[in-house]
Amino acid sequence: MPKTPNQLTRKLRAGKAVSVASCNPAGYTPDLVDYLGPVGLDGVWVETEHGTPSFQDIANISRAADLWDMATVVRIHQNDPGLIGRILDCGASGIVVPHVSTKEEAERVVKGGKFAPLGMRGMYGGRRALGAKDYYATANDEVCLVVLIEEREALDNLDEILTVDGIDVFQVAPSDLAQTLGYIGHAEHPEVQAAIDGALKKIIAAGRTAGMVTSETNRQRYLDLGVKFVYGSILRSLAKGATEFKQLVESRNQ
Questions:
Q1: Which residues partner with 73 through β-bridges?
Q2: Rounded to 5 degrees, what are φ and ψ at 47?
Q3: What pLDDT shows up at residue 5?
Q4: Which is nearest to 155 in space by CA: 118, 187, 192, 188?
Q5: pLDDT of residue 1
Q6: How many CA atoms lie within 13 A of 7 on its CB side?
Q7: Is the omega angle on the peptide bond into residue 25 within 30 degrees of 0, that is, cis?
Q8: Residue 2, domain member (yes or no)
Q9: Which domain holds residue 92?
């Protein structure tokens, strides 16, 4: 029986910050999750919008993550209640839904991610229901639902989006936001940065949980701003270590 409860969701609802690491586009394997397990990350981000994991991959990655009390948070490619339910049935701990720009779209996420009376997730539990008592009564409390704020329309409708119950994290996505603001490929532009900060502050002021894509250079600033769902790639650290290794060896050849 999978370990419960979902500690990532519990920490977020207690107002604590959580660390969620990705290695997109390389992707996770169960072995890599096991290797990272002792680090104590709160969650791993499995990328299916821009990546290649299959349903079976999600099932196996989430099994490995369960062993280390890590959540498996899966970004899907479209806001489809049936797809949301199927990913959860595979064993995912949470779902990230892109391009949520209206209140109605946020409500659609809840519809797919929660059983009645909060939503209309299909009545099936997958492996997480095996051996669990009152699974349908507790599943709604375990699942972490994340929506991505990544379009100008989402900024315009953010006040309404933030009123939707059942969403755990409102994460700002800088690259797509830059695109819709007219600065494609330039998320560092001052206008984009101002929009990001404004959205994060509005989310936090509304008493909701803010999420943000972070790097080694800006992570502390966003934590200081009040971001609780802290997402970042570990590939930069891997590349840095590989570069330093190569440079040390090559220095002997000069």
A1: 45, 94
A2: -100, 110
A3: 66
A4: 192
A5: 42
A6: 17
A7: yes
A8: no
A9: 7-251
Task: Report the number of distinct structural domains present in the chain.
Answer: 1
Residue 156 lies in a domain: yes
Would residue 1 count as lying in a domain? no
SS3 230: strand
Mean pLDDT of the chain: 95
Tokens of 109: 């996420």
Q: Which of 50, 77, 186, 189 is catalytic?
A: 50
**Residue 225 domain flag:** yes
- Burial of 76 by CB count in 10 Å (0-12 exposed, 13-18 middle, 19+ buried)? buried
CATH of the domain at 49: 3.20.20.60
Separation CA 86–CA 164 (nearest Å)? 22
pTM above 0.70, yes or no: yes
Q: Which amino acid appears at position 97 of this protein? A: V
Confidence label for 125 from pLDDT (cuts 50, 70 and 90) = confident
Q: What is the pLDDT of residues 146-185, one digit of tens each?
A: 999 999 999 999 999 999 999 999 999 999 999 999 999 9
Each residue of 24-81: pLDDT tens digit?
888 899 999 999 999 999 999 999 999 999 999 999 999 999 999 999 999 999 999 9
Preceding amide of 30 cis, omega within 30: no
Active site residue 50: yes
- pLDDT surpasses 50 at 4: yes
Amino acid of residue 235: L
Residues 52/58, Cβ–Cβ less than 8 Å: no
